[in-house]
Amino acid sequence: MFFYQDGVHSASANVVTPQDEQDTALQWRDFIAEHHLDGVVCIAAALRRGVLDAQEAERYQRPAANLREPWELSGLGQLHDAVQSADRLICFGGP
């Protein structure tokens, strides 16, 4: 699973979902864990939106990391490689 643009907010540990709304970030985490998938967020989109792992928080001298497990940061190269070996690509949202 490769999340980019505003989808990277699903990987943030700082997002609080109101009790009367569905917690889609939790649903994605559960889906990834249940199906043993790699949960990847675009590093450029994540940095732009303040979603950082420990390494990036240190690199940019930010006070804390907020990337939640099972997510990891990676570039579009990983998406490109995955598309080359996949039998389909499904995109949600966008134009």
Q: What are the salient characteristics of this protein?
A:
single chain; tRNA 5-methylaminomethyl-2-thiouridine synthase TusD; sulfurtransferase activity; 95 residues; cytoplasm; Hypothetical Protein Ychn, Chain: A; three-stranded parallel beta sheet; Sulphur_relay_DsrE/F-like; alpha/beta; 3 strands
Structure annotation, total helices: 4
Give the CATH superfamily. Answer: DsrEFH-like
Domains (count): 1
Mean of pLDDT:
95
Largest sheet: 3 strands, parallel
What is the fold-level CATH name, i.e. the topology?
A: Hypothetical Protein Ychn, Chain: A
Instruction: Point out poorly predicted stretches.
Output: none
What percent of the residues sit in helical stretches (DSSP H or I)? Answer: 25-40%
Q: Report, as a whole number of angstroms, the end-to-end distance.
A: 19 Å
Look at the helices and sheets and give the structural class.
Answer: alpha/beta
| CATH architecture heading | 3-Layer(aba) Sandwich
The H-and-E topology, N to C, reads as: EHEHHEH
Q: Beta-sheet strand percentage?
A: 5-15%
Brief summary of the model shown:
It is built from 4 helices and 3 strands.
Overview of the structural elements:
- By secondary structure, this protein is α/β, with parallel strands linked by helices.
- It has helices spanning 24-34, 43-48, 54-59, 76-85; strands at residues 2-3, 39-42, 71-74.
- The chain has a 3-stranded parallel beta sheet with strand order 1-2-3.
- It comes from Pseudomonas amygdali pv. eriobotryae.
- InterPro entries: DsrEFH-like, Sulphur_relay_DsrE/F-like, Sulphur_relay_TusD/DsrE.
- Keywords: Cytoplasm, Transferase.
